[in-house]
Amino acid sequence: MPVNNGMYDEMNWWNDDSSVSLLSTSINPCRIAYFHNLLTNRIGLDPTKVRVLDVGCGGGLLAEEFSKKGWKVTGVDQSAPSIELAKAHSAKVGLNIDYHVSKAQKLPFEDETFDIVYCCDVLEHIPTYPAAVAESARVLKKGGVYLYETINRTFMSKMIAIKMLQEWSWTRVIPDDVHDWKMFIRPEELHNAMHAAKIQNVETAGMTVDNPVGFIRAILRHRRGHSSLGDVGRVAPAVVSKDLSMGYMGFGVKTA
Fold first, then answer.
1. Phi and psi (nearest 5°) for 239?
2. Which residue, 27, 117, 145, 210, could crosslink 136 as a Cys pair with Cβ 3.0–4.6 Å?
3. What is the pTM of this model?
4. Which residues belong to any copy of the Methyltransferase type domain (predicted)?
5. Residue 241 in contact with residue 206, Cβ under 8 Å?
6. Which residues pair with 88 in a beta bridge?
């Protein structure tokens, strides 16, 4: 089934029972910890002295996490309603984030504007994702850091992300047109797109659910109406793993 990116125009990004609430409660804590540690402790960047671009920011779920850590964040998304919601929510919680409506394949910024560009939970929604990677590289400074997170195209991801979470009636928690398994991206495919854009991949790490049995039990409890979808993520947080068979994240450096 084709991906319906238009659904995000009507998404309530900050509702604990929305179809993206697993991003807030399970995935975000894992990836913000990984990325922030990478950038500050391993690479040694000062959040107050660099500019960060969130490509495909949606309603601002990850942009706000970066902003809370002190990073100077700009966010772009092609969904105008999502950007308006992101602006309203960041103002409500007192965060200064610069939001713009824009497609990932055509960013409204000059060459080499940002020190860090990240694209998370987005590339698997873009049929021409290599063009989005190239455009991110264009606005990234030489020596800048490109962060990514997406879903691998494997049997495991088909069974969990598609069959269990989208299709099977007894475990379905997200709409059946959120993801198309054929659009999932194998690591070597993404690394090739990065290489073509003059971004050298440095590290790739897997992301898995810490408590898979508890995750399934929590989904069944949610399906019976006993908890929110956000509660499912709290029961089974994502963790960094060597297993790349589901989701993976990592970083590269622009070489030229």
1. -135, 155
2. 117
3. 0.96
4. 53-146
5. yes
6. none
162: closest CA among 3, 38, 44?
3
